[in-house]
Write a structure and sequence with these properties.
The protein is built from 6 helices and 6 strands, in the order βαβββαββαααα. The chain is α/β, with parallel strands linked by helices. It has one domain: Pyruvate-ferredoxin oxidoreductase, PFOR, domain III (Pyruvate-ferredoxin Oxidoreductase, domain 3). α1 packs across α4 and α1 packs across α5. The termini are far apart.
Length: about 190
């Protein structure tokens, strides 16, 4: 599974890639690699994390066409939306990404991750909300594996609030998928 997390420096994009790779390789019995890219500005500049997860050792850690694209900024979305192949999954932050380019050949899902994090008291948790959403929508790793990946990745005093952020994103994703099911069943009957 080729995954690209993208956004701008300071959003926790690299941390998101690390969490997913850690959950997959340490707690889901899979292999994972992560590479990262960020501009010289660090905070505010373009940044991305590329994660490759597989059932067998990963021989090449770089991706060209992600099967899953997560965009948490408008700039990142516009830069990377051309890359996923037909049938890929694209996840966006509803409040920060207003798609100018809309692809009908990919499955698009959105969550107000920044707004949810702000409701929790700090937008710094938006990336973990998005990771929870990613977990629910993609099923690449399970929720319990993601929870186990948090210790050592975030300061101990913030574990509980990060678990809450993860669960809020996950629950949002599950509810979205459940709402989608009746629509699919209705189309199948027609």
């Amino acid at each position: 599974m080729d995954i690209r997390f993208s956004g701008f420096g300071g959003q926790g994009i690299i941390k998101s890639g690390t969490l997913i790779g850690k959950a997959a390789s340490l707690y889901s019995n899979k292999f994972g690699t992560m590479t990262q890219s960020f501009g010289p500005e660090a905070r505010g500049g373009a940044c991305s994390a590329q994660v490759v997860i597989d059932d067998k050792p990963v021989l090449y850690p770089y991706i060209l066409s992600p099967e899953i694209l997560v965009s948490m900024s408008q700039e990142a979305y516009e830069k990377f939306i051309k890359d996923p192949e037909k049938g890929s999954i694209v996840l966006t932050d509803t409040d920060l990404v207003k798609p100018k380019t809309i692809r009908k050949d990919v499955k698009m899902y959105s969550i107000p991750s920044t707004r949810i994090a702000e409701e929790m008291g700090n937008r710094i948790f938006a990336n973990v909300v998005m990771v929870g959403f990613f977990t629910a929508i993609t099923k690449v790793v399970g929720l319990e594996a993601m929870k186990k990946a948090l210790p050592g990745s975030v300061p101990d005093r913030f574990i509980d609030i990060n678990i809450e952020a993860l669960e809020r994103g996950y629950n949002f994703g599950i509810e979205l998928l459940e709402k989608e099911q009746p629509k699919k069943k209705a189309k199948a009957k027609a």
